[in-house]
Structure formats: C-alpha cells, structure tokens
Amino acid sequence: MLDTAEPNHAGEPPRRRKGIYLLPNLVTLAALFGGFYAIVMAMNGRYDLATSGIFAAMVLDSLDGRIARLTHTQSAFGEQMDSLSDMVSFGAAPALVAYEWALRDLGRWGWIAAFVYCACAALRLARFNVNTHVVDKRYFQGLPSPAAAALVAGFIWLATDAGRTGDGLQWALFALTLYAGLTMVTNVPFYSFKDLSLKRSVPFAALVAIALGIAVINIHPPTVLFALFVLYGLSGYVMYGVRKAKGKPVSVLSTSTDEPDERGLHE
C-alpha cells in the first residue's frame, strides 16, 4: 500500500495519503474474475468451465480475508470489495449459469427461481455486513453464499460430467436453486469453522485424516464435493432441530453482553 506523508503548512501533523492494499485486493479481483468467467462460459455453453470458475472463486474468496489478516492489511475498502465480488461470484453467476443450463426451459418459473436466488444472495450479504459485530463467530446466520453457490454449481457439474440434461433435471435444479436461495436468508445456524486455527498444533491422526479426505475427493470430485455441500446445506436444519428439541437457544446472535453495543440484543 502506498502511504506517503503530505506536508501541512498549518503546523499540524502531516496527513497521509491513503492508498489500497494490493495483495488481498488482487486475490479478491481474481475471485471476481472467477464469477465473471463462469457467466461468460455459460453463455458459450461450456458449463463444465462455468462451474469450475465458481469453485475457483470459492477457493480465492476463502483466502483473501486470511491473507489480509496475516499481512495486517485489513481495510474498509477491502471489506466492501469482497462483498461486491461475492455478489457477482456467488449471487449473479450461479443464478445465470443455472438459468442458461436448464431453468430457461421452464419459462417464467425458471427466471423466477434464478431471480429469487440472486435476490436472496444480495439480502444475505447485506445482512452479514450489518450483523458482523453481533453474530456468534462460530456460526453463520443462514447458509453462506459460497456454500449456496456450491450447491447449484455442484449439481450442474455432476449432471454435466454424467452427460445428462433434461429428464426432469430442470425441476430438480429449480427446487435446489430455491432451497439454496431461501436458506441463505433464514436464521438457521451453520457452522463457520472460524474457531479452527492453523497456528495450533494438531494430532498426527489429523494429518492422516486430511490425506484420506483428499484421496476420497479424487475418486470422483463432482460426486464427492456435491455430496459434501449437500450435507453442509442440511446440517444447519439438523442443528436447529436438535437445539430446539433440547430447549437450547437457536439464535446465532452473540450470547455475550460484555460489549456495550450488544446490550439489549439478547433480552
């Protein structure tokens, strides 16, 4: 980031010109390109490449924030840039790819499903931005947009890899698109994995489990990845039901009232 002192003739301390941190924003731009690439490939009928673009954007989206924290380059600009990139890569791109692949055949029902998904992604991202400081960091409030995009893109990737189109897949994708979209705007808690630290030591068995996981994914990536995201997409409702049955609170609003701006939120 360029940060140069600017002289001040009024005797005040020199003001600094604010620039933009390069590294994390480059990663965010790369994630944005993944979403844009997915849309362009869908327009050209290359749905295998379109879904690959969305999954690549997911990987890059998981890195930009971590890179910013590790290099101490967090900024308000970066946060806003990340949200706009997510809207394209995990909101507009999956909706348009799904519409081009199969929802178009359903007429108005198809574009309604695509729009509902896109609108819910925008609402979910807006709610996430304003609730950042009051939501329990261990959970997401509603299905995160990258996971919702993975459900839609994973289904298309799996069907494309199997060479299947039609045969009722339009309505299956219609239902899945609505499910993913509406689940984003629910209050159902989904585990965020944010309490896992890469700096902590882990047992040797954990590394073996990771190696086995990579091996299992490589058996058939479309099937395994889609199955994993389906399980994750259902896990929030299972957690909600278990907590409800045990009489435990199901809200993901932080239960601590130590911070002044949280007082009154949990009454």
Automatic annotation (TrEMBL):
Q: Tell me where the transmembrane regions lie.
A: 20-40, 109-127, 139-159, 171-190, 202-219, 225-242
**What is the top-level taxon of the source organism?**
Bacteria
Primary place of residence? membrane
Q: Does the keyword DNA-binding apply?
A: no
Which controlled-vocabulary keywords does the entry list?
Answer: Lipid biosynthesis, Lipid metabolism, Membrane, Phospholipid biosynthesis, Phospholipid metabolism, Transferase, Transmembrane, Transmembrane helix
Is Ribonucleoprotein among the key words of this record? no
Q: Which InterPro entries match?
A: CDP-alcohol_PTase-I, CDP-diaglyc--ser_O-PTrfase, CDP-OH_P_trans, CDP-OH_PTrfase_TM_dom, CDP_ALCOHOL_P_TRANSF_CS
Localization annotation: Endomembrane system
Q: Name one GO molecular function term.
A: CDP-diacylglycerol-serine O-phosphatidyltransferase activity
To which protein family does this belong? Answer: Belongs to the CDP-alcohol phosphatidyltransferase class-I family.
One GO-annotated biological process of the protein: phospholipid biosynthetic process
Q: Which reaction does it catalyse?
A: a CDP-1,2-diacyl-sn-glycerol + L-serine = a 1,2-diacyl-sn-glycero-3-phospho-L-serine + CMP + H(+)
> What is the recorded membrane topology of this protein?
Multi-pass membrane protein
Name of the protein in question: CDP-diacylglycerol--serine O-phosphatidyltransferase
Among the Pfam families in the record, one is CDP-OH_P_transf
